[in-house]
Amino acid sequence: MSSSVRRAVIGFLASQPIIVGVAAKYYRETHRPKLPKTPLAPLVGKVVLVTGGTSGIGEAAVASLGKLGADLICVGRSEEQEYRVDLSDMKSVERLKSKLIEEDKRPDIILSCAAEIFTDPSTVSVDGYDATFATNALGLQSLLSGFEDRRPEKVVIVASKLERSGEVEPSILKESRGRKLNRREGDFNAVKNYGDTKLCNQLLATTLADRWHETKVLTVSPGMVDTGLWRNFPTWFQTLTYPVRAIALRSPEDAALGIVYAIAAEEMKNIQSGSFLVDGKV
C-alpha cells in the first residue's frame, strides 16, 4: 500500500466518529419521542428514590426530576454513594433497607432504573443467582418489600418490550436455585435472558398493583437506548455495533422523557395501576 493510499485510509477511519456523530444528532432530532402534550406537575416536597441514578437513563431522569423540584435519594454501587447498594447482593439490599428505616426515609415515589446484561451464563451473584436476574429482578423485589408498611404513592419501573418474548418458569427457578429462569434450549442468549428478567419486573408490577391499592405502579419502556448496558458485551461486538447504536438508538436523555412523564404528568392520574407505557401511552 502506497503512503498516499495509507494516509487516505487513515483519514477516512479517523473521520468516522465525526460522521457518526453528525448523523446521530440529525437522526435523533428527527426521531425524538412524541409524548402527549400534558403538563408536568412540580415535584417540590416529593421524595424520589432512584436506583441506577448515576449513569445512563437514570442519570438523565434524575436531572429532569431535580428540575421539577424533587428531593432525590440516589442509590447505587459506587463508593461515593451515600446510600450504597449492590442490587445483586441480597445482604447489601438488606443493609440499605435498614439504613432507610433508621433515617426514617419515606419516598413518595420509587423509580427503578438499575439494570445489567451479563453475557456469560456462568456469571452469578454472591448469593449464587443468575447475575442478570439478581440485579434486575430479585434486588428490586427485595428493596420494595422494605416499604410494605410505608408504601409510596407511585412506583415506576423501567421496563423493556423484550419482556414480551420473556419466559419465566417458577419450578425451574426453584430447581436451579435462581440460576435458570426457564427451560430454553440452545446456546445462552444474553438479550433473551435480559428479556426474561424484564418479564419478572412486569410480573412484580402486576402483583404490586393488585396488592398495593393506594400505590400507582407503572412500567415504562424507554425504547432501545445507547447506554452502558452494552459494556459487558465483547469488544468486537461493541465496536461493530457502535455506528448503529450511536445513530439509531435513543440517547439516555430522550429515553428518560417517557419515564419522567410517567412520574410527573397530570394525565397519569387517569392511568390504571399496573399499566405498561411507551412514550406516555399505554
Structure commentary:
The chain has 282 residues and is α/β, with parallel strands linked by helices. 44% of the residues lie in helices and 11% in strands. The protein has helices spanning 3-30, 56-67, 90-102, 131-145, 170-175, 190-211, 235-248, 252-264; strands spanning 47-51, 71-76, 83-84, 109-112, 154-158, 216-221, 275-278. The protein has a seven-stranded parallel β-sheet, sandwiched between helices. The longest helix is centred in the N-terminal third of the chain and has 28 residues, at 3-30.
Sketch the topology as an H/E string, one letter per element. Answer: HEHEEHEHEHHEHHE
Largest sheet: 7 strands, parallel
In round numbers, the mean pLDDT is 88
Shape: globular
Q: Specify the structural class.
A: alpha/beta
Low-confidence stretches: none
Strand content: 5-15%
Task: Indicate the percent of residues in helices.
Answer: 40-55%
Report the radius of gyration as a whole number of Å: 20 Å
How many beta strands in the DSSP annotation?
7
**First and last CA, distance:** 57 Å
Number of helices: 8
Q: How are the strands of the largest sheet arranged? A: 3-2-1-4-5-6-7
